[in-house]
Amino acid sequence: MTEDDIKKSNILVVDDERDHAQVMCEALTRQGHKCDVTYSLSEALSRLDRRPYDVVVTDLVMEGHRDGLDVLKKTKALDPPPPVVLVTAHGDIPTAVQAMNEGAYSFIEKPLDLEHFRAQVNRAAEKASLQKQNQVLQDQIADAAGFEGIVGNSGAMRKVMQTARQVAPTDIPVLILGENGTGKELVARALHNHSKRRKQRLVIMNCAGFAPTILEDELFGHVKGAYTGAGADREGRFEHADGGTLVLDEIGDMPHDMQAKLLRALENGEVVRLGSNEPLQVDVRIISATNQNLEEMVKEKQFRQDLLYRINGVTIHIPPLRERREDIPLLIHYFMKAAVEKYEKQIDGVEPEAHQVLMSYSWPGNVRELRNVIERMVVLSPGPKLSVASLPPEIRPAGGEVTGGMNNLVGISIEQAERELIRNTLKLTNGNREQAARILGIGERTLYRKIKDYDL
């Protein structure tokens, strides 16, 4: 590695022998690196909290203690974790080998061979640089591929994705509202996967259908002997998600008594297992989801207002599919492509009549229902295009015929066909002109003019 190839890096040097620390620092700064020097474990931990470093060089034993292992432990909790080069006396080699097994980049014996020392640190700096480059590439690929499979080009969904992107890197609590099947869990997963906690656990807990005592056990855990049958200690979802993200799905169905206990846990960052008096500190990011109107529930004394304030840092509202019909063609294509790959079918499109039915159906089950329908149609389709015949009975029109289809436009003028198309699209969107214009692919002013021209 030539002088020009060396990656100039920010390096933290930790050693309680001040002269030795200064020698290491000087050896690295001569090659263009920037060094901060600390002389104790506490000072090193403080530095690591305040700023990122590309490489950490630390003595293994300081003031008679193996403080270098604590420095290593601290770096592993950082994102990204910097490579750690350990400096050790000959008698501490077994401990240094242990540190290597725990994630240290390398270790160097005293007295230092400065050329060997610089080479080891430069290789560690090269590794850190490659890690950064890979992360940048992954972020670029993720941006090009969309936001974690959330599909939609409507204004409402663009707003959902924009808000999700803005809040994902933070720890602010998020409340996701939407009917069943709209994709609340998908958004919750996207928030976690784009957060600083993405390398830690994502734990999803459905709060509906549990008796208060069972729900408390699920959330906070229990100690051995807490109740009959509790034969061993068990951690709850809060502990299991420590350092990561906890999603409280269907939080509107949580019993009122449990809401108070949840609020205490969120305010104090502590949980107490059933049968114990000892609080346990936890660090979790809370994402809540519900299909209910929590503000109305607060008015009816069914949901605690203080808990709503605590979980509602930012609200993301996912509209039902019937309110964003312009997303249906995109979703059809997305789900069809996924099903074709999954079941190895030869499907290349949707027949116009089937497409019309899919566009006009009310979709009470929202995106989940549409996905299931498309997957079923792909499996059952006898030909290369999805047809009305492969539609589920509950969606297929009575008698199996589609009214207002392409055949009805044969033998009429283009002007008459356009009038019929606009009229049917307005009916489809319940008179919502903004949605109708997006579906038709024309500007709102153009649509307003045509509505006036055609007296619709």
What's the shape? Answer: globular
Q: Which runs of at least 5 residues are low in confidence (pLDDT < 50)?
A: 140-145, 403-408
Number of helices: 18
Q: State the major sheet.
A: 5 strands, parallel
Overall SS class: alpha/beta
**Quick check: average pLDDT?**
87
Notable characteristics:
456 residues; alpha/beta; Rossmann fold; Helicase, Ruva Protein, domain 3; 3 domains; 5-stranded parallel sheet; 16 strands; globular
Describe the overall structure.
With 456 residues, this protein is an alpha/beta fold. The chain has three domains: 3-139, Rossmann fold (3-Layer(aba) Sandwich); 155-319, P-loop containing nucleotide triphosphate hydrolases (Rossmann fold), CATH 3.40.50.300; 323-453, Helicase, Ruva Protein, domain 3, CATH 1.10.8. It has helices at residues 18-29, 41-50, 67-76, 93-101, 114-144, 155-167, 184-193, 212-220, 237-240, 256-268, 294-299, 305-311, 328-343, 352-360, 366-380, 414-428, 433-440, 444-453; strands spanning 10-14, 34-38, 55-59, 84-88, 106-109, 174-177, 202-206, 221-222, 234-235, 245-249, 270-272, 279-281, 285-290, 314-317, 349-350, 385-386. Strands 2-1-3-4-5 form a five-stranded parallel β-sheet, with helices on both faces. α13 crosses α15 and α16 packs across α17. The protein starts with 9 loop residues before the first strand and ends with a helix. Residues 140-145 and 403-408 have low confidence and may be disordered.
